[in-house]
């Protein structure tokens, strides 16, 4: 974990992936000078008021709001109040977004401030825990979600006419269902389906409403719930279901059901 600090600011880099970098930053009484990235920069303000000049206008980004900056666009950054501000951000290589778009032009979002709820919940989750390593399948899914959101906010989203390879996709699905504890590689998905990884990522969500990574997590949670309902302690259930530890299970469980495993189990007991 890299930590960089200086007068009035603090930067903390989280775990990244190829073409993807995550950062948490805080600024008080100082500012970023005008600069530009060669990546998409998509962040959420966590606290305070973030201000920045972008394409000739002063913008304000409040807590819960997102900012979307196109590659090679000059911008600065400063606090709108004396209390400063904090945000988390993901930088994406345009080539990764381009692969997710399948050859369509890179979208340009003219209004860089996106209201709360305007970006995918999965992207918010990606920024909620920037220290957790990203699997390759998650990396692709984030790129697809970002590409779709960019097209939506740029007004350039077009209808997909790619026919779904349902028989091939079902083989990927069945592979996951057979043993969700196993973390299959994208190469295994390609081998069992005969599809390339980007097609799998795009079409799996279109066919089943979620990504392969999320689908596997939910099947892991199914296994953990079954075990806990039968009396297995959460720590043992987490291990048997393939989670890193009980804390990992708790985070995923609460994200899926709105309750911790302990409260969920207690609720089951209360009904008996």
Automatic annotation (TrEMBL):
Q: Which keywords accompany this UniProt record? A: DNA-binding, Transcription, Transcription regulation
Coiled-coil residue spans: none
Domain HTH araC/xylS-type as annotated: residue spans: 170-267
InterPro entries referenced in this protein's UniProt entry, alphabetically: AraC-bd (IPR003313), AraC_XylS_family_regulators (IPR050204), Homeodomain-like_sf (IPR009057), HTH-like (IPR037923), HTH_AraC (IPR018060)
Q: Source organism's superkingdom?
A: Bacteria
**Protein's recorded name:** AraC family transcriptional regulator
What species was this sequence derived from?
Streptosporangium longisporum
Lineage, opening ranks: Bacteria, Bacillati, Actinomycetota, Actinomycetes, Streptosporangiales
């Amino acid at each position: 974990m890299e930590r960089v600090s200086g007068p009035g600011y603090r930067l903390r880099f989280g775990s990244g992936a190829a073409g993807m970098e995550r950062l948490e930053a805080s600024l008080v009484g100082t500012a970023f000078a005008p600069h530009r990235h060669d990546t998409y920069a998509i962040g959420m303000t966590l606290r305070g008021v973030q201000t920045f000049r972008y394409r000739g206008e002063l913008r304000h980004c409040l807590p819960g709001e997102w900012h979307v900056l196109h590659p090679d666009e000059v911008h600065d950054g400063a606090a709108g109040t004396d209390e400063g501000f904090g945000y988390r951000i993901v930088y994406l290589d345009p080539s990764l977004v381009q692969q997710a778009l399948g050859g369509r032009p890179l979208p340009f979002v003219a209004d860089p401030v996106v209201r709360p709820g305007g970006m995918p919940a999965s992207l918010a989750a990606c920024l909620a825990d920037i220290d957790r390593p990203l699997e390759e399948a998650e990396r692709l899914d984030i790129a697809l979600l970002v590409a779709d959101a960019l097209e939506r906010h740029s007004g350039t989203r077009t209808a997909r006419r790619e026919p779904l390879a349902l028989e091939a996709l079902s083989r990927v699905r069945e592979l996951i269902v057979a043993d969700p504890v196993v973390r299959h590689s994208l190469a295994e998905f390609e081998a069992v389906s005969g599809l390339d990884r980007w097609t799998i990522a795009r079409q799996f969500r279109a066919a089943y409403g979620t990504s392969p990574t999320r689908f596997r997590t939910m099947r892991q949670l199914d296994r953990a719930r079954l075990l806990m309902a039968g009396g297995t302690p959460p720590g043992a259930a987490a291990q048997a279901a393939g989670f890193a530890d009980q804390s990992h299970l708790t985070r995923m469980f609460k994200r899926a059901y709105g309750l911790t495993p302990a409260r969920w189990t207690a609720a089951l007991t209360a009904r008996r």
